[in-house]
Each structure stands twice: as C-alpha cells, then as structure tokens.
C-alpha cells in the first residue's frame, strides 16, 4: 500500500497529538469551575481546533477532531469537565463538539487554497473563519437543544444563547489570531517532513 493510500506514521502522530490537546483544552474548567457561563464551559478547544486545521490541513485537521469526538462518545472522559459517552449527543453543548470537525476542515481548506506560500493574513482569515463556524454551529445547536429536548433556563431565548457566548468571545478571537501567528512556521515544517517521508517511502 502506498503512502497516498494510507496515513503515514507522522500523520497518525500529529492526529493523535491534536486529539490529546483537545482533551486537555476541554478540561481547563475542571481546575477553574468559575469558567462556566450559562452552562457553556470556557475552554481552549477552539484554539486547538483551528490550530489543527492551520497546521495539519483540512483532511488531517478534521480527522483529528473526528478521532477526538469518537474517543469521547465511546466513553473516554475527554469532553469538558471530564465528561464522555453517547449521552453527550443530547447535551446542549454537543453542537460545539461537532462544529470542531467543520471548523478544522474550513481552516485548513482556506490555507491550502493559497496559490503560493500562505501569508500570515491568510492564516488569520482561516482561523477566524474556523472560530466563527464553531460559534454559529455550536450556539444554534444549543438553542434548539434547549427549545426541544433539554431543560432550558427560565426566560431562555435566542438572544440569551448568544449573550452567553460573549464571555469566551474575546479569548477565542485573541487565541485564534495567536494560532494564526504561530502556525505558519510549524505548517512549513510539517509539509517538509511529510514530503521527506513520502520521498523516502
């Protein structure tokens, strides 16, 4: 089987590394319980998600998020507040978990579409787009979950759902830009290593 038909050891290592980083980033609230606003934990997951897309590209970035999601659904306590299991599907915040797959893919896709070496501006655009996808998908899932199957807080509304997201928004904007700044050099190194591995194979 050729390297084009299978994942190389480097690919598997990077995918596993980012899945692990997502688990670590998810559980910062376990040491700081006050970082929960309206039932929405403030985590570092968005940062690691867009960083995965920026460094690994759309295919591997999305794969890392899929691996992370499946590990959690099969019971490993890798989601926020050390939660896991198939019951997570019915939680209002599960939409954020699903959005990580699309956010990482979109981030990587924007960078890979650069006709030449991607600029820092393109990395910034890509990571911010990934962050927006995370917010839009996650917040809308949360709204419909509270409306149709979860017990909603008193006076819950669509505007209330979005108001909860104002707390983590500054942090996620800043960290998305930070991801865009640190990603280019690592992106180039990963591409060189991948090319070397392909040539050696």
- Overall, the morphology is globular
Tell me roughly what share of residues is in helical segments: 55-70%
Major beta sheet summary: 2 strands, antiparallel
CATH topology: Arp2/3 complex 21 kDa subunit ARPC3
Amino-to-carboxy terminus distance: 10 Å
User: How much β-strand is present in the residues?
Assistant: under 5%
Coarse structural class:
mainly alpha
**What is the count of DSSP helices, taking H or I runs of 4+ residues?**
6
The tally of beta strands, per DSSP, is 2
H/E element sequence: HEEHHHHH
Mean pLDDT: 88
According to CATH, what is the class?
Mainly Alpha
Unreliable residue stretches: 1-5
What can you tell me about this protein's structure?
- With 201 residues, the protein is mostly helical.
- It has one domain (9-185): Orthogonal Bundle (Arp2/3 complex 21 kDa subunit ARPC3).
- It has six helices and two strands, in the order αββααααα.
- Strands 1-2 form a two-stranded antiparallel sheet.
- Helix 2 (45-73) packs across helix 3 (94-112).
């Amino acid at each position: 089987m050729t390297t084009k038909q299978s994942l190389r050891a480097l690919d598997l290592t990077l995918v596993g590394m980012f899945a692990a980083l997502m688990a670590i980033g998810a559980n910062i609230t376990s040491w700081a319980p006050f970082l929960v606003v309206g039932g929405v934990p403030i985590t570092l997951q968005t940062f690691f998600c867009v960083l995965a897309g920026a460094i690994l590209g759309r295919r591997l970035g999305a794969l890392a998020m899929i691996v992370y999601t499946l590990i959690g659904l099969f019971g490993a306590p890798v989601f926020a507040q050390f939660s896991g299991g198939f019951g997570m599907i019915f939680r209002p915040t599960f939409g954020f978990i699903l959005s990580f797959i699309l956010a990482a893919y979109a981030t990587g896709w924007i960078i890979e579409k650069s006709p030449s070496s991607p600029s820092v501006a393109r990395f910034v655009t890509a990571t911010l787009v990934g962050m927006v996808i995370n917010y839009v998908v996650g917040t809308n899932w949360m709204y419909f979950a509270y409306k149709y199957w979860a017990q909603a807080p008193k006076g819950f509304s669509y505007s209330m759902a979005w108001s909860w997201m104002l707390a983590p928004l500054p942090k996620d904007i800043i960290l998305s830009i930070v991801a865009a700044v640190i990603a280019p050099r690592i992106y180039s190194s990963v591409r060189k290593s991948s090319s070397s591995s392909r040539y050696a194979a």
